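Note to self: user wants both folds in one dump. Writing first protein now.
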Amino acid sequence: ASQRRWCGCMGLRWLSLCSRGLSLPSHATSLTLGRMRATGVTDESWETVVQLRAKKIASERVLAAEAHRLAEMQAFLRRRTMEEDEHNERAGEVVEALQTCRDERLDHEVNVEILVPIKQGSLEVQHTNDFEPEYSLARLIPASVVHDLNAQILQLGQVRVDHMTSIMELKKSIHTLEWQHEYFDMLATDLAAKLKDVQLMRVTR
């Protein structure tokens, strides 16, 4: 029984070494298998155990190879993912730089610095310092727009002047009527006094 337990332990240790990929030569394998065979084990059972051990070793080797292949594939996928992220980042930078160039080109095409001669008195820009004028907030307006606006202002001003003139004429007519009313009152008072004097006058022969 003790020999059987010893053989069983040796068999497990040997199977563990084989499962780790530490295989032995063929003559050593057959010799080791013969030594590890327990007493009382039939040839058929022992052949079954040997076949199962061989299948287990083969499956573990295939599994180790597949695991190694999977690790290589995962490492390859990580590298490709990192490269894709780098390419996407570079593509984003290129797109941003392209948009910046387009904006600058449009700005150069639209915001063109030109010299505009303006007559004296046509410039209406307030400066805090006359020696250093600031035209960043200035706007260039066509003369026709200014003329039209001035015409509207003159028209509205003329309407107001006409309204004020009509009010003045109305007040003048009211004052004239009030003066005439006072004049006729005074004239009536004077005539009444004269009539009274005539009535009180004595007639002599």
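First done. Writing the second protein, which came from a different request thread.
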Amino acid sequence: LLSPVLVPRPSLSLHPSQGVSLGDNVTLRCHLPQLAAWVRLYREGHLSYTKRKKKEQDAAEFSFVGTLREHAGRYRCQYSVSESAEVSVKSDPVELVLTDLRYPPSRISLHPEQHVGTGTNVTIRCWNKDYGATFFLHKDGSSDPIQRQDSSGGDTATFTLFGVTPADSGTYRCSYRPWRYAFMSSPPGDSVMLEVTPTAAPPGAADSSHGNLVV
């Protein structure tokens, strides 16, 4: 068994990078910082695929046509260098999360509703039907979820925006991943709209800090 040596670490990317549904086609691309003879793709620490490379190529692609539940997971790649036995360390992980449209979308509520003043604490509650799950709060325009939280009592998660500012205005949605299938996701659920109204600062007051999302 070859041990990793000091050759540059590869990187791994997912195409498309998000919004992949069960049955879609997806490609994992291992980017090679130097010429390689072999490239290996690992899922959850176990070798899944090996590909021999042509010397002029600077990336290796592993494609799934019609993704299945068992394709979902956390992946890394590794390569061995041409003309030697040198082996790289594994890349940083990439998560392939598949949306299963059979999961019922989560519900969402906002309190106080819609129009609030700067500095208000806002609560966003998400729930589903009888699924123990990890919930994800999404804001339209942000590529990644704003926050995640395990449900309390099995089917509900509560997120709080403390001291909101106009930057927190927008449309929010929730999705969830059942605990039994950490890389399978529900489709995004219903949306709520938050509109934060600026308030004039008292004379001489320091600039207020931006609100942070905590759970």
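Dump finished. Worth passing along: The first strand starts at residue 11 and ends at 15.
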